Amino acid sequence: MDFVFSALSETNIFRGLTAEQVEELFDGRPFRIREYERDQYIAYSNNTCNDMLFVLKGSVRGEMADFSGKKLKIEDIPAPNPLAVAFIFGRENRFPVDIIANEQASLLTIPRDVLIYILQNSRVVLQNYLNAISSRTQFLSKKIRFLSFKTIREKIANFILTNIPKESNVIEFRQTQNELADFFGITRPSLARALAEMEEEGLIQFERNKITILNREKLNKLLNN
Question: Which structural domain range is residue 176 located in?
Answer without folding.
Answer: 152-223
